[in-house]
Task: structure prediction
Amino acid sequence: MILITQRLARQVQAEVDAAREAGMPPLIVEIPDMTGAVEGAQPLMERLRAVMGVPRG
Result:
């Protein structure tokens, strides 16, 4: 599992997207940095639920 800040992920978005689309490990999870979440970013818990296949409650 790779934890990457949302802001850094935006800077290397093509690489992050390619790794996710490949469907192979490692799992990449974007997290807010010390200044908070990036506007429009998927909330962390929502992303983790989607990755794990847990339906929304």
In short: Residues 13-22 form the longest helix (10 residues). The two ends are 25 Å apart (CA to CA).
